Input
Amino acid sequence: MIRGTLLLGAGVVLAGCAAPASRYEWGSYEEVIYASYLSHDDLPAEKQVELLEKDYQVARSANRRMPPGWHAHMGYLYYQLGRGDQARQELLTEKAEFPESTVFIDRLLANVSKP
Amino acid sequence: MSVPGRWRIAAVLAIALGLGGCQTVKPYDYTNFRAHPPRSILVLPPLNESTAIEGTYGYLTTVTRPVAERGYYVFPIAVVDQFMKDNGLPTAAEMQQAPLAKVAQITGADAVLFLDLKQYGAHYQVLSSNVIVEVAAKLVDTRTGLLLWEGHGAAQQASNGSGNILGDLLAAAITQAINKKSDRAHQVSRLANANLFFPEQTGLPYGPYSPQYDKAP
Output
């Protein structure tokens, strides 16, 4: 019992220094981007989209938000794949979730809308 | 109920170690930051002073999470990178030299995070290797050009010998191969970032998406 209490105490103190519990569903967002930079041939946009869509399903079922930039990045991937409607939808979602992105997203939307 | 002596000592030690990890020498002067608290942060690819070319993106792809968790809107790094390249800024150095007013006009970012990757990668010795990541950061207000915050973070992971010379030579070779493949420096970057962004009194203050916004950093 004493041992348990002491371990708990030390755990709480250590937790004070660790990163806080995440408020977003990060999934493989950063790792997918990392891998796409290091070796784009091994992880083409189709595969990236597939991985990230899976993360989105996890987030939805757990009722968690995607991190800032995530929907914009998805829009960028859909755009690369010629899926313009989905690209626009993701960019609009980014703007709705994070109004700080408005200026940049509007600029990207103008590009996506170009024929 | 008396706590046995050695448990008491262990507990005190654990607590001291825990606190020691958070202690810093001199608090940062957040005057500029408090005058212009940003909501959104544009992270540009780092200048890469290391000998590892993969460091630029190996490090960049670890920065979004800690800054976003701190409570800021972080622009999508790969989209920003591509946008800059498409607009005549092919390298990190050129991106970092873009006029702040222009960056603000194009992205609407409140602040830009300028990163300088000093070290990234494994330093091989005969019997061991050290993976080291060291980075310096400056957060600059896009409207005034004021320095809002700056910091420095480093981390290293060592693998040491066992005392068995033959075994160690073999192990070092295997470890080097694994290091090369999995780019351990990418993982060590996350430790360096914790040391850069999260320290009490010198770290990046909490942003508006953090429940601890407006509290001391």
Q: What stands out?
A: Chain B touches chain A through 46 residues (CB under 8 Å). The longest helix of chain B spans residues 165-182.
